[in-house]
Amino acid sequence: MKAAPITTKTVLVTGCSSGIGLATAKLLRERGWQVAPTARKAEDLEMLRAAGFEPVQLDVTDSASIADASNEVLRRFDGQLGALVNNAGFGVAAAMEDCSRDMLRAVFEVNLFGLQELTNRFVPVFRKQGFGRIVNISSVLGELALPFAGAYSASKFAVEAASDALRRELFDSGVSVSIVQPGPIDTKFSKTLAHRTGKFAANPDSVFYSFYKEAIETRKNGTAERTAEGFMKPPEAVAKAVFQCLEKARPPRRVRVTVVAHFGAFARRFLPAALIDAIAISTLRKKLR
Q1: CA 34, CA 182: separation in Å to the nearest integer?
Q2: Which of 33, 148, 152, 211 does the annotation list as catalytic?
Q3: pTM of the entire predicted model
Q4: What CATH number is attached to the domain comprising 144?
Q5: What is the number of structural domains in the chain?
Q6: pLDDT tens across 82-136, in order?
């Protein structure tokens, strides 16, 4: 699908405290974009200032913060915006039977509700100016649900659906919507996930209590990352994919960054559900021994 050319290379990138967001902000700045990176915490905003950015404070779980941030970005860029990169994300590793309503809500607040509310602040701007690029960072788990990733997968499945619907609704606007599926990326995500898993899921009453304890320790000491090293890419690889979505005349609908992401898409489309179940259950049995 061809999109209208961008006449102002200005971009808002969410979740820039580290990892994919920070790498994306830096790469886009190097390629000539004016970048407004966001972060939630004061120390992360200070880090971004030290890196030469003018960051915007944003908490995507807070509607007032979304309104303030979007207004600030439009003020800064004279009422226009070339692109929006929705990168801020939240994950927790827990069996579905251990997922409370509050846990599910927390994941969806960041990964879907906040993402869409922020996007909706800029869609009228994009429509009025006749151009704009929207890039939503999803996951291979947005196509393939695995044990202990049900809540995260559900939110990313929802992001995929919302992105597809929005892209089709914007068919005559000159605005594009792209999805980037990273797969395993070398970031702090796993260690942060371990902390959240410990807080939400590791309770003595869970059938999976012993698994949680081992999984948390594995993520904290980096064993999980070392196991995935052969498939893992740096966050800059995702940043390059985002750049493609912003600069190509025909922005891709989906970009899969790693071998794992490509395999997940292949498995979803071509492998029988029974075979996927068998593989997932076999892996799960080994972890529970």
Answers
A1: 24
A2: 152
A3: 0.91
A4: 3.40.50.720
A5: 1
A6: 999 999 999 888 899 999 999 999 999 999 999 999 999 999 999 999 999 999 9
Active site residue 152: yes
pLDDT in tens, 170-218: 999 999 999 999 988 987 665 566 566 666 555 778 888 877 777 767 7
The token pair at 223 is 């064993």
Inside any domain, residue 107 = yes
The first and second tokens of residue 147, run together, are: 């044990």
Q: Are the beta carbons of 57 and 40 closer than 8 angstroms?
A: yes
- Does residue 220 sit within a domain? no
Q: How confident is the model at residue 231 (pLDDT cuts 50, 70, 90)?
A: confident
Domain that holds residue 19: 10-188+232-288
3-state secondary structure of 179: strand
Residue 227 lies in a domain: no
Contact assessment for residue 27 and residue 236, using Cβ atoms and an 8 Å cutoff: yes
CA distance 14 to 87: 5
Residue type, 71: N
All residues at 6 or more sequence positions from 182 whose CB lies less than 8 Å from its CB, including other chains: 20, 137, 139, 140, 233, 237, 238, 241, 257, 258, 261
Q: Is residue 87 part of a domain?
A: yes
